[in-house]
Design goal:
The chain is built from 1 helix and 6 strands, in the order ββββββα. With 85 residues, the chain is α+β, with helices and mostly antiparallel strands. The relative contact order is 0.21. Strands 1, 2, 3, 4, 5 and 6 form a 6-stranded mixed beta sheet that branches. The protein has one domain.
Length: 85
């Protein structure tokens, strides 16, 4: 089954976060902008990953931030492919 991202429901209404996990890895995509509500940073979709069963910090997926959610999802899938080879 392919990795499927789901939007995270959270109490902070203006934060946009999606997560997915597969093959022992967890991926998160968040939307950031320089101003306005939510996360602040370079405008775009920032993707990160970490091993599920290890207490380690998340690592940013190269190329972040991405222009679209689809680009960020594809980058995560490529990273998973690289990690599981």
């Amino acid at each position: 089954m392919a990795m499927q991202f789901t939007r995270v429901v959270n109490p902070v209404e203006d934060m946009e976060i999606w997560n997915a996990s597969d093959d022992g890895f967890s991926f998160v995509i968040s939307y950031e902008s320089r101003s306005g509500p939510g996360f602040h940073g370079r405008t775009g979709f920032v993707a990160s990953w970490r091993p599920i069963h290890q207490n380690k910090c998340a690592i940013r997926v190269g190329g972040s931030p991405f222009r679209t959610l689809t680009e960020a999802e594809e980058a995560c899938k490529a990273m998973l492919d690289h990690l599981t080879r």
